[in-house]
Amino acid sequence: MGKFTVIPQDTFNALQLDAGVLLTTFNPASPSAPADSDIICATTGGINVSCVPTYSDMGEDVDNCPNNMKELKKLESWECKLTTKSLGTSPELIKMALGAADTSGATYALTSDQSIKTGKTYYTRSGTSPNYVYTPVAEPVVGSIGTYYEQTSPDYIVTPRRDLSQSDFETIWWVGDRADGGMVAVKMLNALSTGGFSLQTTKNGKGQITIEITGHVSINAQSVVPMEFYSAEPASS
Amino acid sequence: MTKEEAYHGFMSGFDWVAYDANTVPEDAELPRITYSFAFSEFESSVAMSASVWDRSTSWATVTEKADDIFDEIGLGGKIVPFDDGALWIKRGTPFAQRMSDEQDNIRRIYLNFEVEFFTNK
To answer: What is the pLDDT of residue B21?
Structure first.
């Protein structure tokens, strides 16, 4: 075998295996198996993550200046995208795919609980019929439980909105396995679906929603590129 | 540990004695697991098989053993390390298939795997 027909010894350790998973939250400092509630959706065909820079050549129109002179190269921007096909059609997933949209249709009733149940979301009601507004209670107290409502059926209506809201942006994680048991992760900041909603059905098959998500820069952190990358071997036991 | 030893170790990890299908002793007892082994270079996937055998008129024990192997491999496959790399053992398609035997009191399930060899040796 030729002496240059070689691969690095750590090639196999850092191989990324399988499609990975999309999560709403993840802690790369303490990577553990995700909670079911943190998984955004099942996907098919894998997940594509890209972070592509756009450069301009300031010497392009300068006489006698060679193209691609590094001192005159300027980084204009980064385009951070994540694309996949989702097999889920929950209201939350459809809302995410639409980007600017709201869910509604949930029904509520006064709770019959006599004490606060851990992990349960209680709501207060405001407004007037038929346009009541139910707001989740951040820290429910038993003294007010008589005024709390609980959701008896979830939202099932998803309505695209004409205007974009800052709350439409969210953080999304892609996390995948490495061959050595470690993890590879990508964090997308200020993620918003920019590809819209596109559902493809097929006879005897499963419907797929194509999702294209773009990361955005915030006016409050203009030098922060909206994508971070993590790759770590497994923690030593 | 060599890759052959690593694969044999994996097959032996289900409480039944495992044999290379080409070298099963005449006095080998049931229940047992037999497996084939083949090797290829990095970045190619090798189709391999194994069989779980038991002396019984019921499919219960061999089905349970096949399920154990199915679960152990898991959705993303199982990485089995050895000295110069690792095996990536994945479920084949179909994973398990019942086989007939001349003796009515022998039950056998045939298992399919896809194995990638993460090694350049």
So the answer is: 94
From chain A, the residues in CB contact with B119 under 8 A are 12
The reply to whether B31 touches chain A by the CB within 8 Å rule is: no
User: Is residue A161 within 8 Å of residue A102, measured between CB atoms?
Assistant: yes
The first and second tokens of residue A169, run together, are 């942006």
* pTM of the full structure: 0.82
**Tens digit of pLDDT for each residue in A49-80?**
999 999 999 999 999 999 999 999 999 999 99
Look up residue A39 and give its DSSP letter: B
- Cβ within 8 Å, pair A15-B118: yes
Residue B56 DSSP label: S
For chains A and B, what is the number of CB pairs under 8 angstroms?
23
What ipTM does this complex have?
A: 0.73
Taking the CA atoms of residue A106, residue A112, residue A114 and residue A117 in that order, the dihedral angle to the nearest 10 degrees is: -30
Instruction: Give B79's contacts in chain A (Cβ within 8 Å).
Output: 17, 179-181
Range with lowest mean pLDDT among A9-13, A24-28, A157-161, B98-102? A9-13
Q: What are phi and psi of B46, to 5 degrees?
A: -110, 130
Query: For residue A180, what are its two tokens?
Result: 């050595």
CB-nearest to B76 from A6, A177, A180 is A177
What is d(CA B107, CA B105) in angstroms, rounded to the nearest whole number? 7
For CA atoms A126, A132, A138, A142, give the dihedral sign: positive
- Measured in degrees and rounded to the nearest 5, phi and psi for residue A226 equal -80, 35
DSSP-assigned states of every residue in A169-200: -EEEEEEEEETTS-EEEEEEEEEEE-S--EEE
| pLDDT score of A237 | 59
Q: What is the pLDDT of residue A11?
A: 81
Per-residue pLDDT tens for B33-82? Answer: 999 999 988 878 899 999 999 999 999 999 999 999 999 999 889 999 99
Asked if B120 and B109 count as a contact pair (C-beta separation under 8 A), the reply is no
